[in-house]
Amino acid sequence: MQTTSDLNIVETRPLPTPAALLAETPAGERLAQFVARTRHDLHRILFGDDRRFLLVIGPCSIHDLEAGRDYARRLAALAPQVADRIMIVMRVYFEKPRTTIGWKGLIMDPHLDGSHDIETGLRTARAFLREVLELGLPTATELLDPITPQYIADLVCWAAIGARTTESQTHRQMASGLSMPLGFKNGTDGTLKAAINAILAASQPQTFLGVNLDGAASAVRTRGNPDCHIVLRGGSAGPNYSPEHVAATESALAKAGLPPRAILVDCSHDNSAKKPELQPEVMRELLAQIAAGNRSIMGAMIESNIEAGSQPFPQPRAALRYGVSITDGCIDWPTTEALVREIHTALAVRG
Ligand SMILES: O=C[C@H](O)[C@H](O)COP(=O)(O)O
Ligand SMILES: C=C(OP(=O)(O)O)C(=O)O
């Protein structure tokens, strides 16, 4: 018989079920309460009932657990000092979308050697998210593979759909079933349409193919996620955080029948021309807009790590420098700490 399928498949390796990994690393009642409370607070910040500023901040990706812990401990010590005006949520990013190819994150390749031990990746991601929550720090992550959420979403307070997948029906359907506030990035071309369509689609009930907690292929029916919003990250035509861009975003949201005041600005990516050291300047520009009366910039995203910049990858693991990103460049910890304090001071104008 002529074989007509799986011609390009090398191996299909079954994974533990989501239920098995959840039982192995349970959230526990205390952390589940913390996640639920944080999501509620995020909803109130994003949609206008809470005057705190949302700051999603942390490494572009987690590749070294010890450095990730070190970063999380520093952020957890800083967060309470500014908590009256800023809600800090740590970027705990395990899935990296690539423009062409490259390391796809700790879930896909936890040993950083191309062995793609996804089982260990999922297990490690769950355990690390729990550690961050244990520090009292809310968690943020990008959700990329549509099966991943079953393994980790209960430990995630805020999620992003990235610029490369905002236009994907698969991701919009997945978002419609997710339980946390979720930001859709604008497309890599810098236009808003895909993100606005995504918010509309994700707010509606959807039915799609997924897996249940026992790992069985399932038809998943959703209610729609009412807590989706836009994230401005710039695009190929340049940044999109100026007052004019923000005003245009407000009117595009209003025209689509969406709340015009739930905008998060990513200071990194094309808003800083991929030069991480420019992020504080972008942030200062946002603070100037807020001081001038802007009421729609509800928060910002910053890529920050222990050390500045990024390092080439792949390279031998032993040669990697501690605390330096292996994906996008970041600002270092001293810059981060000073910037967070500066944001806190500047936000006094909002009362
Ligand atoms: O935030 C991370 C990157 O910008 C994104 O994953 C794309 O990376 P790449 O263009 O290096 O593949
Ligand atoms: C991949 C990311 O961003 P974007 O989708 O905006 O490129 C990210 O925030 O890690």
Q: Return Rg in Å.
A: 20 Å
What is the count of structural domains? 1
* Count of individual helical segments: 10
Which ions, cofactors or small ligands are bound in this entry? Answer: erythose-4-phosphate, phosphoenolpyruvate
The main sheet comes to:
8 strands, parallel, barrel
Question: Got a strand count?
Answer: 10
Oligomer: single chain
Level-1 CATH class name:
Alpha Beta
Order of helices and strands: HHEHEHEHEHEHEEEHEHEH
- Based on Cα principal axes, name the global outline: globular
The appropriate CATH architecture is Alpha-Beta Barrel
Mean pLDDT: 98
Unreliable spans: none
**In whole angstroms, how far apart are the ends?**
74 Å
InterPro entries: Aldolase_TIM, DAHP1/KDSA, DAHP_synth_1
Pathway: Metabolic intermediate biosynthesis; chorismate biosynthesis; chorismate from D-erythrose 4-phosphate and phosphoenolpyruvate: step 1/7
Family: Belongs to the class-I DAHP synthase family.
EC number: 2.5.1.54
